[in-house]
């Protein structure tokens, strides 16, 4: 292909990627090293607010932003180096906790608490999703042709549900005397509170995510199964390979690129776990890195938001994803290079 | 252009069913952004009777409002605010003083409704709200219990109710981690005579009042649903409606729901009393809130005038008479009902509870409390460590916001 033609095909895509991915990323990167503050002054302010019958007036010292002649708050922007990262990571406290050998003290710091959960969540859901997805695909592949369509349709349903709605449904099924908790209580004959401690919430989150994402893995693997070389399978049968042997030595190696693809996508998605925390209202017990960034960004009643710490936390999340993906990307790169010769 | 405007006007008139209930016919397009609870629905419906009015009711209004009002022209003419959420609007000067408009069109307002900042009217309040004690009168009668006036008495009563086993949990608590839990702490902390920040903006949480507040809250959780860290006002309201709890310190604005026959199994059985005291001689352990309207600054005077007149129609006696039980209204024509007694007793207590402070510091403190308190209730951290962590989180946030050096 001529370079000109190539550029015309790829140009729009590169332009949009710069506009919507690279530029925001660069802004966040810069913001994580800056702090923008309003210039404030203190004033004596008398405020009168209603009581039930008459007003109460109080005079207090208030901190208010200074406004310029157009009525906009005056702000200053400072380069602060790694200050926001330090405020998120709190390495000094981690050091003290390590010296004291206290795991609990480290877990009291939001970032490390979030990292602990995010990693556990990502690494536990990955194998479960691969196994469930592959299992479903093999089962459907072996099912009678007449009912395959229906089974595929039903298995895909969880994937279609919007994640926030899905997690809210699970929350409502289990919270308080929700229908499933009531069922469990009746069955086990004991009082159960699913949202009163961290581990039950985490189990529900794992269950929800596997239920939600396994259909994706299933569809990909099912498509892959259609391309398995039938001759190889037949010769394996003639050689006396069992069902399990065929799966292990013929099917899985054939599906390997797809398994890596599903793993890549899932690692990226699961590391950004967020909907479960919001839907399950689990902030007291379990938080994730993405939720931490969101919490920094969310303005309080007085309109303050911690943009610098949010940017630092977002950059740290991205670095985490990249580290997780390196082994898989290296493998794909090796395969790619191998096949091109 | 003119034709388009006329068409739009006709369409909105048709939608609102004409301007018959409004004293004037509004010709300037006006819109509002406010919270979405019942009282706001009634108020905005009454405003819509004037025509050319569009209301946006959104429980996430507080995250939108500062930016929407800072735009020029402002995206909304009328804002629904409370004393917690009005702070950024006043600080950034995005709402206008209302003295002239009140003089011209506010003849039905009482002086009590006018929120003054340094003498200037910045908002018009329509209702007050507070968290106070709601309790099941039938259970108290049956067990011969007196209505508690202090939190220590609440514990005694809760023990008696638990012993009798008449409800699942004696107490309900709006202790969902985050905003609600922090607000619950605020109530108790103020009740024990605490002060959030000093004049130098440094935190004063790690004090005796802080320790006592945490201790009292923890003792109360023993009588609550173990899932109290996910329970917000709506959840507690439902626990009441389904007869699962006997007492709770709940928002006055939730009172109407107790007698809503479509939802509630305890119609007529719930009464309200003043918020309990945390210590003898103190104020009720709660905060006073008001909800009301503001008018944007970045709009034309003509729009502001129309917006204010529309708003006055929404806050008139006719509206209150149609929605009497939905709030503790400050508007003339309001008849306090059985459930309003608690809020009135709270607001008129001596010494009275403080209004929730509308300051930047309080916003930061509220977030710090909401994020750090849960670890205490899950048992991950002791009381003193928690209070120290709150102060540390507040200081970090205050430095980033430029309030502390």
Characterization of this structure:
With 341 residues, chain A is mostly helical. Chain A has a domain at 110-336: MetI-like fold (Orthogonal Bundle). Chain A has 14 helices and 4 strands. In chain A, the strands form 2 sheets. In chain A, strands 1-4 form a two-stranded antiparallel sheet. In chain A, strands 2-3 form a two-stranded antiparallel sheet. In chain A, a hairpin with a 4-residue loop joins strand 2 (40-50) and strand 3 (55-65). In chain A, helix 2 (83-89) packs across helix 14 and helix 5 (110-142) runs antiparallel to helix 6 (145-160). Chain A is globular. The two termini of chain A are 21 Å apart. The relative contact order of chain A is 0.11. By secondary structure, chain B is of the alpha/beta class. Chain B folds into 2 domains: 9-127 and 288-341, Periplasmic binding protein-like II (D-Maltodextrin-Binding Protein, domain 2, 3-Layer(aba) Sandwich), CATH 3.40.190; 130-287 and 343-400, Periplasmic binding protein-like II (D-Maltodextrin-Binding Protein, domain 2). Chain B is 42% helix and 15% strand. Chain B contains 17 helices and 10 strands. In chain B, strands 1, 2, 3, 4, 5, 6, 7, 8, 9 and 10 form a 10-stranded mixed β-sheet that branches. In chain B, strand 1 (30-34), helix 2 (38-48) and strand 2 form a beta-alpha-beta unit. In chain B, helix 2 (38-48) packs across helix 12, helix 8 (179-191) crosses helix 9 (208-221) and helix 15 crosses helix 17 (383-400). The longest helix of chain B is centred in the C-terminal third of the chain and has 18 residues, at 383-400. Mean pLDDT of chain B is 90; it is low at 5-19. Strand 2 of chain A pairs antiparallel with strand 4 of chain B.
Biggest sheet architecture of chain A: 2 strands, antiparallel
Strand content of chain B: 15-25%
Low-confidence stretches of chain A: none
CATH superfamily of the largest domain in chain B: Periplasmic binding protein-like II
**CATH topology annotation of the largest domain in chain B:** D-Maltodextrin-Binding Protein, domain 2
Q: Alpha-carbon distance between the termini of chain A?
A: 21 Å
CATH hierarchy class name of the largest domain in chain B: Alpha Beta
**CATH fold descriptor of the domain at 110-336 in chain A:** MetI-like fold
Number of strands of chain A: 4
Oligomer: heterodimer
Structural class of chain B: alpha/beta
CATH superfamily of the domain at 110-336 in chain A: MetI-like
Largest interface: A-B, 61 and 73 residues
